[in-house]
Write a structure and sequence with these properties.
single chain, mainly alpha, 9 helices
């Protein structure tokens, strides 16, 4: 519990780390209708493509230095030799980032969905998908940033972005199912299955990568 409070307070006090990505997300969503014709009948459909890309970019931005500060000040080394499980510490850090960034973005994204589509049902259905997707994104990008911890964030982006392309396809199919009033819960279950694997596997892999950087 102490490590959770520590990470929560540390990120909360670093407003640039969590407020910046949220403001960038809002800016993208506000700028979107300004770049298309208001009379465009497909505006509500193109909105979802912009939504998923915006979430992906913001999660990539949010995790750019998720481990770098702790690596530079020696905190990661202390965590690695502490009695607390290192993968658990990594998973807590990722969860705190998702809690302060992913959850607000999911709420804001659902509100924008309501504004663009005028469908409360669609906005409600999109909300859990946004929650799951943002958590998957932040885990995968954290993995990428662990890989490029001492080499800059470009390498991590190049490695992790291709891994997320199949997920974008699933998100597109889920939106189509919701719009056609089909059963979209299968896609939600698929996303949850992917997330359940990632939240256990990614912190474990990241812990080994960071230990390699520390040695």
């Amino acid at each position: 519990m102490n490590i959770i409070k520590f990470e929560l307070l540390k990120l909360r006090n670093k407003s640039r780390g969590w407020l910046g990505p949220i403001l960038v997300f809002i800016l993208i969503m506000v700028a979107f209708p300004l770049t298309v014709e208001i009379s465009n009948k497909d505006l509500d459909q193109s909105f979802f493509a912009v939504l998923w890309i915006a979430v992906l970019l913001v999660m990539m931005l949010a995790t750019e230095d998720i481990f770098l500060e702790d690596f530079n000040d020696g905190s990661l080394e202390q965590f690695a030799i502490s009695d607390i499980s290192f993968p658990y510490i990594i998973s807590v850090k990722i969860f705190i980032y998702w809690l302060l960034i992913g959850v607000p973005i999911s709420i804001i994204g659902s509100l924008f969905c309501l504004g663009f589509t005028n469908s409360g049902n669609l906005a409600i259905n999109i909300f859990p998908i946004l929650l799951i997707t943002s958590y998957i994104f932040i885990n995968v990008f954290s993995f990428g940033n662990a890989l490029s911890l001492t080499k800059g964030s470009v390498l991590g982006t190049l490695v992790t972005l291709p891994l997320l392309l199949p997920l974008l396809i699933v998100l597109g199919k889920a939106v189509i199912s919701i719009n056609l009033n089909l059963n979209y819960l299968g896609f939600v279950a698929l996303l949850l299955g992917v997330l359940s694997i990632i939240i256990f596997l990614i912190p474990l892999i990241i812990s080994y990568i960071i230990r390699a950087h520390l040695e």
